[in-house]
Design brief:
This is Methyltransferase domain-containing protein. It comes from Pinctada imbricata. By secondary structure, the protein is α/β, with parallel strands linked by helices. Helix content is 22%, strand content 28%. The strands form two sheets. A seven-stranded mixed beta sheet has the order 3-2-1-4-5-9-6, covered by helices on one side. Strands 7-8 form a two-stranded antiparallel sheet.
Length: 178
């Protein structure tokens, strides 16, 4: 979905994981491609916009009562959660894992930013590896990954330019509908 070089996301289209009828997507920076292909209801939150927080529903089910959307969403499976929040994922993901909310997510797309500018210290790498292990432990398996070559930094070792961001797509093999 979207531009593969920067901001494109792969969606698992296998029958067990494919977004189906009445699919729900929560996105922190998604494009319209998921609506065009699957017709999902997409709630897009973009704090980088000029507004403080922009919430946009791109496609909705006509049977929804606007007053009860948040209550209904709390009980619904999130078919796809997409996060691209420029290094803040390292604060958000551990809390999401700890809370148990990830158990009701079928697919998870995230751009992991180990750094945006300078080479990170070893603690940042350990945090990244620990978070990936925690995701694995609760059932998330990588089915696709892509380096975002527009996110680069110069390594202190060997003066090599390295990629600091990876777009990673997961499926939740432990997902069980409520």
């Amino acid at each position: 979905m979207g531009n593969l070089d920067d901001g494109g996301w792969d969606i698992c289209d296998d029958l067990a994981y494919r977004p189906g009828k009445n699919c729900l997507v929560y996105s922190f920076g998604f494009d319209d491609a998921i609506v065009k292909k699957y017709g999902c209801e997409v709630h897009s939150f973009d704090p980088s916009s000029r507004d403080i927080v922009q919430v946009k529903v791109l496609s909705t089910d006509d049977d929804n009562d606007d007053d009860n959307d948040n209550d209904d969403d709390a009980r619904r499976t999130i078919d796809i959660l997409k996060i691209d929040i420029e290094e803040w994922e390292w604060l958000a993901l551990p809390e999401m894992i700890k809370s148990g909310v990830m158990s009701q997510i079928r697919q998870f797309d995230v751009e992991l930013h180990i750094t945006l500018k300078i080479e990170p210290n070893k603690n940042k790498y350990f945090l990244g590896l620990s978070t990936l292990k925690d995701l694995y432990d609760i059932g998330f398996r990588i089915f696709w990954t892509h380096r975002n070559v527009s996110c680069k930094f110069n390594s202190r070792v060997g003066s090599v330019t390295r990629c600091g961001c990876h777009e990673v797509s997961f499926i939740n093999v432990n997902y069980k509908p409520k």
